[in-house]
Amino acid sequence: MLGIKILFCLIAIPLSQATQCSKTCPNITVKPVDFEKMSGPWYEYQRSSNNYDGSDKCPKLVWSKPVKCISKLVYKSVSNLTNVTSTMISQVVSNKQGTGFTYHLPIYGNLFKEHLIIATDYKSYAVVYTCEKRGSNIVELGWVFTRKMSPPCDIEDIVQEAFDNYNLKVPEMVTNDLESCSCVFCSYKFPEML
Q1: Which helix (H) or strand (E) element contains residue 153?
Q2: Could you tell me if 131 and 25 are in contact, meaning their C-beta atoms sit under 8 angstroms apart?
């Protein structure tokens, strides 16, 4: 019986990091995002550990200026397995709750996700939160984007305050090693933005 309890704890505790049982996503509304100010390059400084599998590195995205209230977002990263650059394109729109992203995935088709920008100063950082219902569970995800490869020196305080403002818990985060990506970032081309 003790062995079963230990096995349960070994399985349940790590899963609790990724999902929460029988809970609903918090109902939060964020300030409207200024797509003009968001436009330009962003580096993915951090993402929540429950959304990281170690399969890619050097994540960078470019957010286009809006056309008829819709922006295009092009995300690039390099596979740790094949060393090939992958590209994901999405359209971004504002809605009542925050910001909606429609990802265009060649095999799957279009996939809509609600990503809430819970804090940004537009010139150095953006903190993003998502909560997804999966069956009877929820999964809470977070990202931190920066305009430069090195984040502002007070980024941890900024992230904590952003989550605190909405009574959210900062998820365990994985930090990308952006400093080692200089050559990779120089190789990225964004013809999709033309």
Answers
A1: none
A2: yes
**Helix, strand, coil in percent for the chain, rounding step 5:** 25, 40, 35
Q: How many CB atoms lie within 10 A of CB 94?
A: 17
Sign, CA torsion 164/175/154/100: negative
* Integer Cα distance of 54 and 36 in angstroms: 32
- Give per-residue pLDDT as tens, 10-25: 333 344 444 455 489 9
Give the Å distances, CA to CA, from 110 to 65, 70, 91, 127: 21, 16, 10, 24
Q: Could you tell me the end-to-end alpha-carbon distance of the chain, in angstroms, rounded to an integer?
A: 63
What is the chain's Cα-based Rg? Answer: 18
Average pLDDT, the chain: 86
Closest by alpha carbon to 63, among 13, 115, 25?
115
pLDDT tens digits, one per residue of 157-171: 999 999 999 999 999
